[in-house]
Structures are given as C-alpha cells and as structure tokens.
Design a protein that fits this description.
The complex is a heterodimer of chains A (about 110) and B (about 110). Chain A has no helices and 11 strands. Chain A is globular. The relative contact order of chain A is 0.34. By secondary structure, chain A is mostly beta strands. In chain A, strands 2, 4, 5, 9, 10 and 11 form a 6-stranded mixed beta sheet that branches. Chain A has a 5-stranded antiparallel beta sheet with strand order 1-3-8-7-6, with no helix packed on it. Chain B has about 110 residues and is mostly beta strands. Chain B is about 0% helix and about 50% strand. Chain B has no helices and 11 strands. In chain B, strand 4 and strand 5 form a beta hairpin. Classes of the chains: A mainly beta (about 110), B mainly beta (about 110). The interface between A and B is medium-sized, with 25 and 28 residues.
Chain lengths: ~110, ~110
C-alpha cells in the first residue's frame, strides 16, 4: 500500500462550485498535514496545514483531518478560474528527524468560467 | 514577501556531466531541503540539511548527490555524474525551525539530461 494516495483527477468544475479534494494515507506516524497548490512547472505553494485531527478554515478553503480514518480533505468554496492548478497533499511525522514531507501525486483541478 | 530563489530555472546537461543547482533559502530559515519531481510523478524528498550537515536523506540520495552551504546564503545540490533518469524538476525548500511545518518552496530548476 502506498504511503499517501491521492486521486489524480483530472477534476473539472464550473465556477462557483464547491470542490472536494482528498487523500488517504497508511502511516499512522503522520501528524502534520498540508495542502499545496502547484501551477504548471512551478514550485508548490503552501495553502494550509493542520496538526492532528480537526478542521481549519482560511477564507474559501477548509482543511479537514480524520486520523481515525487516515483521511484528509480540502474543500474550496465558490471556486474561481484562478483556482485551476494541481493540488498536492503532503504530510509528515513529528520528532526526531521526521521532517521530510511525503506527497500525494496531486489532483489536477480546472475551474471553468 | 520573502521567497526561496533557485537558479538556473532550466539546465540542460550531457549524461555523465556534473551539475550544481543553486538555491537561496529565506534568510531567517535554518532548515533546508531538496525535493525532486520527475514529470508526471510525485514530489519526492531527497535530503534535509541543518547546521552544516545532512539531517536526513532518502534512498534516492546516493553517492552521486551532495549538498553544501558554501556561504551564508546559498544552498547547493551537486550531481556528480548525471544520468538520464536524473531528469526532473528539483525544488529547494526551507523552514524556520524543526517544529515548523510551513516549508516554502522555490520555483524549481528543470534539469534535462541528454
């Protein structure tokens, strides 16, 4: 089983739609969970991070972590064409030398005007 | 806004040649990382670096790879004898400290080995 699994899409939605992006993971040592946005041939840009289980909201973005199910989600409300990008989930453990990020493969999102 | 900068943006090299990829991390950050992304694949961790030494490395980071902080601002990744399969985007990242989760990534260097 892969450490982090993410549906690569592609996902195409109309402007204004609510978008749901998800990742599952197998490593129970993961404690920190992040969502990055990546435009074509650019570096990942951090959108949100959460520690352990729970929800975190930032503007139109909400990140959810369910550690019992090993499942994380990113919701985008009122999606805009400028949200079109690849969304990467990433996660890591804590303590020791556990600072490397393990990424999902990314979901390509297109928001159509 | 502070950012991680990488040079060059694109490097083409012949197989067997040495390449050095350069990064300037955010100035008050203490932990530095290299990741790579082969076209169509995941972003993969290569190495982390703190206090002038490697703190963690992946199995990808073999003897062909080395990292260095030659001065107070630059952080470099050297590939000694490039192979075709080294062709990828290489991303530098930095964080303020150990417990910080906000890793900031550079724009990447696209390495093409021919």
């Amino acid at each position: 089983q892969k450490e982090v699994e993410q549906d690569p899409g592609p996902l195409s939605v109309p402007e204004g739609a609510i978008v749901s992006l998800n990742c599952t993971y197998s490593n129970s040592a993961f404690q920190y969970f992040m969502w990055y946005r990546q435009y074509s041939r650019k570096g990942p840009e951090l959108l949100m991070y959460t520690y352990s289980s729970g929800n975190k909201e930032d503007g139109r973005f909400t990140a959810q972590v369910d550690k019992s199910s090993k499942y994380i989600s990113l919701f985008i409300r009122d999606s805009q064409p400028s949200d079109s990008a690849t969304y990467l989930c990433a996660m890591r453990g804590s303590g020791g030398s556990n600072y490397k990020l393990t990424f999902g493969k990314g979901t390509l999102l297109t928001v159509n005007p | 806004e502070p950012e991680v900068t990488q040079t060059p943006s694109h490097q083409v090299t012949q197989m067997g040649q040495e390449v050095i990829l350069r990064c300037v991390p955010i100035s008050n950050h203490l932990y530095f990382y290299w990741y790579r992304q082969i076209l169509g694949q995941k972003v993969e961790f290569l190495v982390s670096f703190y206090n002038n030494e490697i703190s963690e490395k992946s199995e990808i980071f073999d003897d062909q790879f080395s990292v260095e902080r030659p001065d107070g601002s630059n952080f470099t990744l050297k590939i000694r004898s490039t192979k075709l399969e080294d062709s990828a985007m290489y991303f530098c990242a930095s964080t303020v400290g150990r417990g910080t989760t906000e890793a900031f990534f550079g724009q990447g260097t696209r390495l093409t080995v021919v």
